[in-house]
Amino acid sequence: TLAFIIADVSGKDVSAALFMALIRTLLRVFAEQAGSSGTSPLHAVEVVNNYIVQHHQSRDGDARCMFATLFFGVLDTSNGQMDYVNAGHNPPLVVRASGNLEKIRATGPAVGFMENISYREGRVILAPSETIVLYTDGVTEAVGSDRSFYTYERLLKNIEQPFATSSVLLERITSDLDSHVNDAPASDDVTMLILKRIGS
Q: 3-class SS at 11?
């Protein structure tokens, strides 16, 4: 199996970077514990959510809080079965062999909002030659020199065009994104992850 995660934390300063490092470490530890005990590694999302709310959120009525959206997938590379939790993250897109696109919608809220949330697990099957595209809102909301957003629709246009490999698609989107942003200062982190199943 292959486990993969893409996530985005609130904020843009050093505290946000430290918060992401904390979540990454907790997810890795709790997912490995769950896997070794025979339960789903995806259960780690619920454990991490409770930990964050209990130990890292304000108790004095301060409205400020740290949270993270994330998509955690576990792919069985032998048959293409992918189990996942989408905790409030941008819907990843599955590119079917037919060229059709399918959204993977949220199965629960972002991590860090509320304690004792039960995150529903979803499942999709990736057939050979099918691809999943994951991204953060730093892609669709990248601001150009004319102050316009890159937009979800522009991202879709790049994904809808045929591509041979995940690297080709990634380079296409990155090039188009760079063209849009041009010399404008970065408004947010840009993160993408593209996986294509090539096995039989």
A: coil
